[in-house]
């Protein structure tokens, strides 16, 4: 039985939950324009879409709210340098908190200037924080561990140079959506295990966490919504190749593999009820709680993967944004 068949069987028992009323029509339109599921042949298409949607300097500055610069900094040992996009509040006085952004794109697409950066900048504006967005190498040309090691190298550089940039190295959030959520969670594990920088929190938005793709929701949404179960299989296969789903996959690549989730920074974890990644996000939060750790979990009813980026004016999208900001504010005040 091939992997796609197995995830379909896992979800045969029940139909997917209904979409939220404000999201149902937009998801139909989105899927009418976006070929699904992801396949290796569609990776160039995804990259073209990412490139066409890259944010300009003007858009990132948000009317002068942020000052921006790009820095080329050392990558992992023996690997190419990486780019960090540094967005500082123009009116900042003194060191400010930082959102360290790892972009999404299913491990195969996206950039440090992808449109999801807008949400991070909006949250940073409310918090008086900076955003630092890292450009990492993409699979399948650069398989695991290249992406997470690039992100870790950028995080270490940020921690070392933060004060000179007007940033507070003790108040850094790891934040990412989808594949970026996997990388943010992997960074939290790497930083713990290597005694590296100590993030103040991790914001895991609709995160890809487990390459085994065996949850009920992976089957239930095998061909439903945005970033369905079959696309998820394709993304993990691009990153891990023949290792996907087998023994020996690192928890830094697939954080759901981690045997020990203790000693991590507080986590904000969110998923939609109508997405393939739903159940692994719920499981990850539960396992953090079982170690005595801190996690806040949101399951947005009727929501598909990354819904707030695609339909920002929906009531549920505004609620998701407000929940992230409120949680981050509480963490900073703690």
Q: What do you see in this structure?
A:
- The structure is a single chain.
- With 334 residues, the protein is α/β, with parallel strands linked by helices.
- 39% of the residues lie in helices and 17% in strands.
- The chain has an eight-stranded mixed β-sheet, sandwiched between helices.
- α5 crosses α12 (315-333).
- 50% of the residues are buried.
- Mean pLDDT is 95; it is low at 1-11.
Topology summary:
Blueprint: H1 3-10, H2 21-33, H3 43-52, H4 57-61, E1 66-73, E2 82-89, E3 96-102, H5 117-127, E4 130-135, H6 146-161, E5 167-177, H7 179-193, E6 201-205, H8 216-220, H9 229-240, E7 267-272, H10 278-290, E8 295-300, H11 307-310, H12 315-333
Brief digest:
The protein has helices spanning 3-10, 21-33, 43-52, 57-61, 117-127, 146-161, 179-193, 216-220, 229-240, 278-290, 307-310, 315-333; strands spanning 66-73, 82-89, 96-102, 130-135, 167-177, 201-205, 267-272, 295-300.
Tell me the strand percentage band: 15-25%
**In whole angstroms, how far apart are the ends?**
50 Å
Number of strands: 8
Helix content: 25-40%
Strand order of the largest sheet: 1-2-4-3-5-6-7-8
User: Tell me, what's the shape?
Assistant: globular
Features:
alpha/beta, eight-stranded mixed sheet, 8 strands, globular, GDXG_lipolytic_enzyme, hydrolase, hydrolase activity
């Amino acid at each position: 039985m091939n992997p796609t068949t197995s995830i379909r069987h896992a979800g045969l028992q029940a139909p997917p939950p209904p979409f939220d009323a404000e999201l149902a029509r937009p998801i139909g339109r989105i899927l009418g324009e976006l070929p699904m599921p992801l396949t290796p042949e569609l990776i160039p298409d995804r990259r073209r879409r990412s490139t066409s949607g890259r944010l300009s300097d003007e858009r990132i500055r948000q009317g002068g709210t942020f000052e921006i610069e790009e820095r080329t900094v050392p990558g992992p040992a023996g690997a190419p340098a990486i780019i960090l996009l540094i967005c500082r509040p123009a009116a900042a006085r003194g060191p400010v908190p930082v959102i360290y952004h790892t972009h999404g794109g299913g491990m195969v697409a996206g950039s440090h200037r992808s449109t999801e950066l807008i949400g991070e900048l909006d949250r940073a504006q409310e918090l008086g924080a900076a955003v630092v967005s890292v450009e990492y190498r993409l699979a399948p040309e650069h398989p695991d561990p290249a992406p997470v090691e690039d992100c870790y190298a950028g995080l270490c550089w940020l921690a070392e140079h933060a004060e000179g940039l007007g940033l507070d190295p003790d108040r850094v959030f790891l934040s990412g959506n989808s594949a970026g959520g996997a990388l943010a969670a992997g960074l939290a594990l790497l930083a713990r295990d290597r005694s590296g920088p100590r993030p103040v929190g991790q914001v895991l938005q609709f995160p890809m966490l487990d390459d085994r793709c065996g949850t009920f929701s992976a089957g239930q949404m095998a061909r439903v919504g945005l970033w369905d179960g079959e696309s998820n299989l394709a993304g993990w296969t691009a990153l891990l190749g023949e290792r996907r789903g087998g023994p020996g996959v690192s928890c830094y690549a697939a954080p759901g593999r981690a045997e020990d989730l203790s000693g991590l920074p507080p986590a904000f974890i969110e998923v939609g009820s109508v997405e393939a990644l739903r159940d692994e996000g719920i499981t990850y939060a539960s396992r953090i709680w079982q170690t005595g750790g801190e996690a806040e979990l949101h399951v947005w009813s009727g929501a598909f993967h990354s819904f707030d980026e695609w339909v920002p004016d929906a009531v549920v999208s505004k609620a998701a944004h407000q929940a992230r900001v409120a949680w981050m504010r509480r963490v900073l005040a703690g």
